[in-house]
C-alpha cells in the first residue's frame, strides 16, 4: 500500500512528522533487526504500522501450510490493516527497519487522511489481484521489479532487492524456478542485468514497464 509522497523523504523520520500525518498520534520509532517478527498471525489486531525506513514483508500461512506473501512495504508505506480483531497475517523485517504505529478507531474513518490510506490499501489489493489474474510469469516479474525500484526511490538503473526470489515467488503466485527463469529471460532480452542474487540493473525501464503493463 502506498502513502502520500510527502512521507517519501529522508526527512520524514523521528525528527519530525511529515504534514500528511498531522493530527494522527504516532508512537515512538520501533527498530527491528533483520528477520525480526513484528507481529504474529493470530495476534490481536488494532495498530496500523508505518514504515520509517527499511523493508517489511507481510505473509500468511494457509490452512494447507502454504506461505502467501501479501506484500512488501518500504519507507512511507502503511501495513497492518485488518477487517477483524485477530491478525490474519504476520509481519517481519527483511532488513534493519523502523516502524511507528497508530491506533485506528471508528471515528478516525472521518479523517480524510485515514480514508485515503484505506482507499490506497484497497486499490493496491485490486492491482495485485489484477496482475495475478491476467499476466504471465515474465510480465509479473517485470512489473514487480520496476515497481520495487520505483517504490524504493531509485533514480539510477541499479536496484537492490531486500527480498529473496522465494519471497517474490510466494508474492506473485509462482514457483521459485519460474521466477528464476523469468529473471534470466529478462536478462537475455537485455532488459535487466542480474548482479548477484539481490541486485539488478534495469537496462530498459520503459520496455519493462510496457511488458508489465
Automatic annotation (TrEMBL):
<dbReference type="InterPro" id="IPR000595">
    <property type="entry name" value="cNMP-bd_dom"/>
</dbReference>
<feature type="domain" description="HTH crp-type">
    <location>
        <begin position="135"/>
        <end position="206"/>
    </location>
</feature>
<feature type="domain" description="Cyclic nucleotide-binding">
    <location>
        <begin position="36"/>
        <end position="80"/>
    </location>
</feature>
<keyword id="KW-0238">DNA-binding</keyword>
<dbReference type="InterPro" id="IPR018490">
    <property type="entry name" value="cNMP-bd_dom_sf"/>
</dbReference>
<dbReference type="Pfam" id="PF00027">
    <property type="entry name" value="cNMP_binding"/>
</dbReference>
<dbReference type="InterPro" id="IPR014710">
    <property type="entry name" value="RmlC-like_jellyroll"/>
</dbReference>
<dbReference type="InterPro" id="IPR036388">
    <property type="entry name" value="WH-like_DNA-bd_sf"/>
</dbReference>
<dbReference type="GO" id="GO:0005829">
    <property type="term" value="C:cytosol"/>
</dbReference>
<dbReference type="InterPro" id="IPR050397">
    <property type="entry name" value="Env_Response_Regulators"/>
</dbReference>
<protein>
    <submittedName>
        <fullName>Transcriptional regulator, Crp/Fnr family</fullName>
    </submittedName>
</protein>
<dbReference type="Pfam" id="PF13545">
    <property type="entry name" value="HTH_Crp_2"/>
</dbReference>
<dbReference type="InterPro" id="IPR012318">
    <property type="entry name" value="HTH_CRP"/>
</dbReference>
<keyword id="KW-0805">Transcription regulation</keyword>
<dbReference type="GO" id="GO:0003677">
    <property type="term" value="F:DNA binding"/>
</dbReference>
<keyword id="KW-0804">Transcription</keyword>
<dbReference type="GO" id="GO:0003700">
    <property type="term" value="F:DNA-binding transcription factor activity"/>
</dbReference>
<dbReference type="InterPro" id="IPR036390">
    <property type="entry name" value="WH_DNA-bd_sf"/>
</dbReference>
